[in-house]
Amino acid sequence: MNQSQDEYWMRHALRLARMAWEQGEVPVGAVLVQGDRVIGEGWNRPIGQHDPTAHAEIMALRQGGKVLENYRLLDTTLYVTLEPCVMCAGAMVHSRIGRLVYGASDEKTGAAGSLMDVLGHPGMNHQITLQSGVLADECAAMLSDFFRMRREQKKALRQAQRGTE
């Protein structure tokens, strides 16, 4: 894939991340592509679905499996706005995706090289081609803006509670 295609699909993932934001979830979006068609989409929904596994990547992988009628997602590329966590990286290895493209790095929980490298571990039975930093600034800005808004909301709530005491 070339850079313009990667940016095109990452913009799609950013639109999905916006869906998460609108639902009060951490804004992460993922789109699973095979060739030039979308076979899976997802955005973070663990709060709304009461499901700790309802990360954007997992949702996209599940949908892709149903579309292909196979748990092996060969010859696919997963575009994600944030570096995947350990759970999501493990699911990618098990599903045998061919390539991962992500936007922003995650120093706290990233499992594609930041905190640890699940995908590049030599003991893994499947290796995934990795491209990081695609539209990283836009992906990181959405997350920063979301968490800034959340902090401001909590501060306003605390101030309002103090005012009623």
From TrEMBL:
Its EC number is 3.5.4.33. Its cofactor is Zn(2+). GO terms for molecular function: tRNA-specific adenosine-34 deaminase activity; zinc ion binding. It catalyses: adenosine(34) in tRNA + H2O + H(+) = inosine(34) in tRNA + NH4(+). Residues 4-115 form the CMP/dCMP-type deaminase domain. SUPFAM superfamilies: Cytidine deaminase-like. Gene3D superfamilies: Cytidine Deaminase, domain 2. Zn(2+) binds at residues 55, 85, 88. The keyword Aminoacyl-tRNA synthetase does not apply. CDD domains: nucleoside_deaminase. Pfam families: dCMP_cyt_deam_1 (PF00383). It comes from the Bacteria. Binds 1 zinc ion per subunit. The active site is at residue 57. The keyword Hydrolase applies. It is an enzyme of class 3 (hydrolase). Keywords: Hydrolase, Metal-binding, tRNA processing, Zinc. Homodimer. Catalyzes the deamination of adenosine to inosine at the wobble position 34 of tRNA(Arg2). NCBIfam families: PRK10860.1. Belongs to the cytidine and deoxycytidylate deaminase family. ADAT2 subfamily. This is tRNA-specific adenosine deaminase.
